[in-house]
Amino acid sequence: MLAAVDLGSNSFRLHVGRQDGDAIRIVKSERDPIRLGAGLDSNMCLTEEKMQAALASLARFRTILQAYPLEAVRVVATNTMRIAKNAATFLPLAEKAIGYPIEIISGEEEGRLIYMGVASVLGSSQERRLVIDIGGGSTEMILGQGVSIELVESFSIGTVGHSHTYFPDGYITEEAFDKAILAARSHFENDVPAYVARQWDGVYGSSGTIRAIADAIAKNALGDGKLTYQNMELLKARLIEFGHVSRISLLGMKPDRAAIIMGGLAVLMGALRELGVDSMMPIEAGLRMGVLSDLQLRATRRDRREQSVQDFRERFAINSERADRVAQIASTLYAQLKPASNAYERQLYWGGQLHELGMAVSHSGYHKHGAYMIENADLPGFTSGEQRLLSKLVLGQKGNLRKLNGVLADPDFSKAVLALRLAVMLMHSRIDVLADELRVRMKNKIELEIKSEWIRRHATLAYWIEKEQEWWSQVGVEFLMRD
């Protein structure tokens, strides 16, 4: 069984799913309307009150998760955690409350996961799809065909912020609505032409906000009951008739959703007007289903991070022979070092494949250029934390080790760095390594058993080993070489 937890700007949500062939069947779903995005003060910090409410929700989710035999759990946080200035202070408390690591994902990664969720429900049809997801703090727009994504953008506009900006006192007027729609259009106008130029067969709305709008139209018999721009105008008029948030009374609309529905409706109408779309289909899928699908793919070794690495190799014309050789040697040496877990196994392999990435910029300091590119690039499937780790590995492939800023405190990561450095060194020395020809150990010190014949045949090897001994000594690790 798999679980996905989405710490959104409006609601915290949980899905527990059971794998049923290639599909995932949801067996448990929970929602807490935390409205984290409304808990940012004037300094863009989460208030104590909101943090306590969030921690209570996470503790409740932890109890729910403990009731299932889970193979994998992934907890992701979105826009509010991306922008909150005290997120780093709150994050350890939140992780302790739920009992799992929390990944603050980028807007682009959020969009990809949303599309994966929609594609998992719609199937592998080659239909060209435009997916729109309006969250509490951001809006994602994704264009793809079947399961493949072509364009993804995250816009910093969502239901919570937009409602507070244009309906701050709860009064609902036509003037406020028109200003809110116009402001929304201004967020989308620059990027929409790239979507319109590619066209699509169907438009889907995947967020709770869009489904709430669709429900309000259908259950309150507005127009023909479908999710069309014309019917959204009717819903807008009905909200204006209510005049104030406290007086909203619509069938099927929860009170917590009513408080921010104006902002969500304005954002959706602004987006559709810029896209030239008159109707769309609400769908019960999105970020959480995407997270579950991603976990399922990783479990079956169809990891899209692999494709991201391969795409990077091709885009920057990395020498495949050298890259594969370093990756294979590093993996062999890492196995010899006997890490406590396999947490860095794949990161190390990818680090070997991308170790010469920076040569696309310059042969001088290429490890630094490569590290920067990896940390800041758009790598589908990777979280920002995973990219930082991969960046550190590539940065640590050569030169002094003090630049790694404390990550060597993790013994397994230190072993991964050592394996990659030795692999790069041996590749540069043009030494073909077999698993039984080299021995390396790392506990309180590094012990390298290397054939003296290699030293005689490869003059630079002795030099580089001496440099390794010096660099490891600078971070307090003794490096011994034996024949």
Automatic annotation (TrEMBL):
Keywords on this record? Hydrolase
Domain Ppx/GppA phosphatase N-terminal positions: 18-297
Pfam families cross-referenced by the UniProt entry: Ppx-GppA, Ppx-GppA_III
Q: Which parts of the sequence belong to the Ppx/GppA phosphatase C-terminal domain?
A: 305-468
What SUPFAM superfamilies does the record tag this protein with?
A: Actin-like ATPase domain (SSF53067), HD-domain/PDEase-like (SSF109604)
* InterPro entries the record matches: ATPase_NBD (IPR043129), GppA/Ppx_hydrolase (IPR050273), Ppx_GppA_C (IPR048950), Ppx_GppA_N (IPR003695), PyroPPase_GppA_Ppx (IPR030673)
Q: Which domain of life is it from?
A: Bacteria
Mention one GO molecular function: pyrophosphatase activity
By what name is this protein known? Answer: Exopolyphosphatase/guanosine-5'-triphosphate, 3'-diphosphate pyrophosphatase
Q: Which organism is it from?
A: Paucimonas lemoignei (Pseudomonas lemoignei)
